[in-house]
Amino acid sequence: MSKPAFVPFTSFDGRVLHDADFRDVEFVDRVTFRNAQFTGRTSFQGAKFNGVGDFTGAQFLGDVDFSGALFAEPLRFDKIRFAGKANFSGVDFQHDAHFSETEFAGDSNFSKATFHAWALFDKSRFEGVTFEGACFKGSANFTEVDFATDADFRKARFITYADFPGAIFEGKARFTGASLECKTIFRNAKFTKEADFTDGRFTHPVNFSSVDFTGDAIFDRVSFLQFVDFKDARLGNSFLLSPPPQGSNSLAPEIRFESVNLAQPQKVRFSGISFERITLMGTNLEEVIFENPKWPLKGLLGAAKRAVVYDEIQKEKPDPQKLARLYRDIRANLKKAGTTRDLGDLFYSEMEVRRKQRRGEKDSLYFLRRYLSPYTLFWLVCGYGQRLLRVIGAITLAGAVFWSIRP
């Protein structure tokens, strides 16, 4: 049996439709439901919209089901309200989907939906929503969206652009297993409860700058393939960052973890992380947990190389006081954890910073004191107590001088 079809350009503008049943209907051209009122249970399940679908100003006062529908042209649901459940699971949006400033007062379901072009949800509000398994082939715009309860993006896929700046997640934010294959922006977003990115994969730059993680922030087994920015973020509770299992294709990312506000640093944990390209300047790392960290090396080939922090390498003129404090905090944390590896190198690096640092902008004796000071003597004689050969050399030299001047 062929599907029922409507002639080109059908208008239901201003109509009141009770228990409307448009299941498997094909709209061969443009159809408008502007300012229409849908009461009871409304079904567009499996419907096919070949032309523009315009629902501007419509009111859905009961549950509505668009599951399995197809929209070949732009769809407009701007500035409307879904009072009941809204089911868009498995919908194929082949063109722009406009849901800007729309209120979803009931549970909404976009699981396994496919968005081929713009997915515009900016400034909308969700009272519970799932995008589990959804695929955003075009740009996804969730700017300043209010997720009033849990937001489910598990195993969702973002291909062109993922934009969440200023979004508010009042419930749990689940991005476990999500694949973000594009530039992703969460700048100034707020996560009130748990934000879970476990097993997530970010192939392009991602921006978490100035984000407020009030609840737990979980980045367990996450893949970052390009630059990640956490600058000025706030961590109100626990934070976990760990790489994927060995043998994965993840690359060592460059992460900016600078000036991050840690409300409970003892709950911040870096597990098995390489800090070879992570900057930490301005973040108070006292009590932060480092599990099996790997630090970049600086110096000549072989044994002369020493462990340092990436800030010292990456920044042209790092603030010496902040850099010295960074070394001190990291060493204190490693000692507390019973990790002795790299402690000597990090102490050496801290002392080198102190030896070479200026004492104010008008430090006229800087160059002289850099090479003529107790720090310099400590460095020359024994390498701050970390270079055994220098100690032996100093003792040998002192002995030779002593024996040469004996009467």
Helix content: 10-25%
Number of domains: 2
List the total number of helices. 6
Content-based structural category: alpha/beta
Which stretches of 5+ consecutive residues score pLDDT under 50? 397-406
Largest sheet: 13 strands, parallel
| Strand order in space, largest sheet | 2-5-9-13-17-21-25-29-33-37-41-44-47
What would you say this structure looks like, in words?
With 407 residues, this protein is an alpha/beta fold. The chain has two domains: 44-316; 366-404, no CATH class. Helices cover 17% and strands 27% of the residues.
Q: How are the SSEs ordered, and which strands pair?
A:
Elements (H helix, E strand, L loop, with lengths): L4 E2 L3 E2 L4 E3 L7 E2 L3 E2 L4 E3 L2 E2 L4 E2 L3 E2 L4 E2 L3 E2 L4 E2 L3 E2 L4 E2 L3 E2 L4 E2 L3 E2 L4 E2 L3 E2 L4 E2 L3 E2 L4 E2 L2 E2 L4 E2 L2 E3 L4 E2 L3 E2 L4 E2 L2 E3 L4 E2 L3 E2 L4 E2 L2 E3 L4 E2 L3 E2 L4 E2 L3 E2 L4 E2 L3 E3 L3 E2 L3 E2 L4 E2 L3 E3 L13 E2 L4 E2 L5 E4 L6 E2 L9 E3 L5 E2 L7 E2 L2 H5 L5 H17 L6 H14 L9 H6 L2 H9 L5 H17 L3
Parallel strand pairs: 1-4, 2-5, 3-6, 4-8, 5-9, 6-10, 7-11, 8-12, 9-13, 10-14, 11-15, 12-16, 13-17, 14-18, 15-19, 16-20, 17-21, 18-22, 19-23, 20-24, 21-25, 22-26, 23-27, 24-28, 25-29, 26-30, 27-31, 28-32, 29-33, 30-34, 31-35, 32-36, 33-37, 34-38, 35-39, 36-40, 37-41, 38-42, 39-43, 41-44, ...
Antiparallel strand pairs: 49-50
Summarize the model shown.
The chain has 407 residues and is of the alpha/beta class.
Fill in the keyword field for this structure.
407 residues, alpha/beta, 2 domains, 13-stranded parallel β-sheet, 12-stranded parallel β-sheet, elongated, disordered C terminus
